[in-house]
């Protein structure tokens, strides 16, 4: 009976999750970073020069070396096999690196799009505020409007004879200040 309790039951889920776990060193992110580094290295002149030197040495050794020292006696079939093996691993690694770059580009594009939307909203808000300020300022009295109204009022008072100061005295006083009631120039306020 004790042996039966130790065996896992098929009709119940296992406790503790998966039995096999990947080591923490080989996470998807570290593998992706390594593949990107490898893909970048394959696009450098160092890799191309090293590969050229390797193939040239292989060809020279297996062509000019004595028959018993050659390690590829089958007309460079091993070289072809090694290059095919290298290409079969390089292609998926390069595709993985391209996919990761496309993911990064997609995230950057989404961030740019959201930033552009915020900028557009801010610009529209500022445009509305400027329009509101223009409307508010349109109702404000300007300096020329106030001067014109004061001139009209002064002319009206002169016509009625209620002005104690003559217009010529005001214009002559200019920057010296407004004239007093008796017509003499006063101090500016």
UniProtKB/TrEMBL annotation:
Residues 1-20 are annotated as: Disordered. Residues 1-18 have a biased composition (Basic and acidic residues). Keywords: Membrane, Transmembrane, Transmembrane helix. This is DUF1003 domain-containing protein. The chain crosses the membrane at residues 44-61, 73-96.
């Amino acid at each position: 009976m004790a042996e039966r309790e130790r065996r896992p039951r098929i009709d119940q889920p296992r406790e503790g999750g998966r039995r096999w776990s990947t080591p923490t060193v080989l996470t998807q992110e570290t593998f992706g970073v390594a593949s990107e580094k490898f893909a970048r290295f394959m696009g450098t002149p160092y890799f191309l020069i090293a590969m050229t030197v390797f193939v040239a040495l292989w060809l020279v050794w297996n062509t000019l070396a004595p028959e018993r020292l050659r390690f590829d006696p089958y007309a460079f079939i091993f070289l072809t096999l090694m290059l095919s093996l290298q290409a079969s691993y390089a292609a998926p690694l390069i595709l993985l690196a391209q996919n990761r770059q496309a993911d990064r580009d997609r995230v950057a594009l989404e961030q740019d799009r959201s930033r552009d939307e915020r900028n557009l909203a801010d610009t529209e808000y500022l445009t509305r505020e400027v329009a509101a300020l223009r409307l508010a300022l349109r109702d404000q009295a300007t300096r020329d409007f106030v001067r014109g109204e004061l001139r009209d009022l002064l002319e009206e008072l002169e016509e009625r004879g209620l002005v104690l100061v003559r217009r010529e005295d005001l214009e002559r006083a200019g920057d010296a200040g407004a004239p007093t009631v008796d017509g003499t120039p006063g101090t500016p306020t």
